[in-house]
Design brief:
There is one protein chain. With about 325 residues, this protein is an alpha/beta fold. The protein has two domains: about 170 residues, 3-Layer(aba) Sandwich (D-Maltodextrin-Binding Protein, domain 2), CATH 3.40.190; about 130 residues, Periplasmic binding protein-like II (D-Maltodextrin-Binding Protein, domain 2, 3-Layer(aba) Sandwich). Helix content is about 35%, strand content about 20%. Strand 8, helix 6 and strand 9 form a beta-alpha-beta unit.
């Protein structure tokens, strides 16, 4: 296990630790290692949920391989796959599995890829810190809150004893895998409330909820962890009583149905032809357990990382 310097997630998200915005993977095919040092670029884009893990790992990797430029973008899972299909990136981060239409797009372009799991996330529902009436929400209440009805909603529409105050909604954007996941398991493909503020940047959602006492939002667990001093997380009752997201309930699946794995997808051609991409992917898999925990997610069982490293070894033959 390679060791990491301590890095606060707040610094990663605020941009204090800078990683260049994603550039095209056609630049810098890489050169052979000299004295163990590689050269070239690794272009990554995709999920804003996975971004804290990948940016932090990229910073550590570039400290070891200073001639390799790792660029990490956060266009959202869907936006990342669009760039991956266009051949603009070597790796695509995702907070949901790849969709059939995205698989078809890659097949049409002749791009073969490998899926690697990185960590577990618990999609976290949050309200303003001053909200003193919500103790939990059922899955049915979540759906009632977020499905569009054509009119503004008040808290009292959900439970009569709650305030007759209009609710302000903050949601990941439609290119986000977090949005897709919530849409599938909570909204069941029905339209989200029309007046919701949508953003691919989870920091915008955090700011929105902290700035309005009648706000509610959702995003990856790491963003709640980084801001829990100014947010209130809502326990969710998936049918077995209210459960709050934390490392134990997310890993065990007790935090249902909002626990999910996080992924990165890597171009097989990039692994075969760019030594720095293969080396970086190996570095990610060797260190994803420690780094995912450090930035606020939950590591996978060790055998999942071993499985990924074995798959990578086969690709490099």
């Amino acid at each position: 296990m390679k060791s990491f310097k301590f890095m606060a997630l707040t610094a990663v998200m605020s941009g204090a630790i800078a990683v260049t915005a994603a550039c095209g993977s056609e630049e810098g095919n890489g050169a052979g290692a000299e004295n163990g040092q590689l050269k070239g670029n690794v272009a990554i884009d995709g999920s804003s949920t996975v971004y804290p893990i990948m940016e932090a790992v990229a910073e550590e990797y570039m400290a070891e391989q200073p001639e390799v430029k790792v660029s990490v973008g956060l266009a959202g899972t869907g936006g990342g796959f669009e760039k991956f299909i266009a051949g603009e990136t070597d790796m695509s981060n995702a907070s949901r599995p790849i969709k059939d239409e995205e698989k078809a797009g890659l097949e049409e372009k002749g791009i073969e890829y490998t899926e690697f799991k990185l960590a577990f996330d618990g999609l976290s529902v949050v309200v303003n810190k001053d909200n003193d009436f919500i103790d939990h929400l059922t899955v049915d209440e979540l759906k009632k809150l977020w499905v569009d009805t054509g009119k503004a909603k008040k808290w009292s529409d959900i439970r009569p004893e709650w305030p007759k105050e209009e609710i302000k909604f903050y949601s990941p954007g439609t290119d986000s895998g977090t949005y897709d996941y919530f849409n599938e398991v909570i909204l069941e493909e029905e339209p989200i409330v029309a007046d919701a503020t949508l953003s691919e940047d989870d920091n915008v959602l955090v700011q929105g909820v902290t700035g309005d006492k009648n706000a509610i939002g959702f995003f990856g667990y790491a963003y709640y962890e980084a801001n829990k001093d100014k947010l209130k997380v809502v326990p969710i009752d998936g049918g077995k009583g209210p459960v709050e997201p934390n490392a134990e309930t997310i890993e065990s699946g007790e935090y249902a149905p909002l626990s999910r794995p996080l992924f990165t997808y890597v171009s097989n051609k990039a692994i075969a032809e760019k030594e720095q991409v293969a080396d970086y992917t190996e570095f990610v898999l060797e260190n994803a357990d420690e780094m995912s925990a450090e930035v606020g997610y939950v590591k996978l069982p060790e055998e999942e990382y071993t499985k990924g490293l074995d798959a990578l070894k086969e690709l490099k033959k």
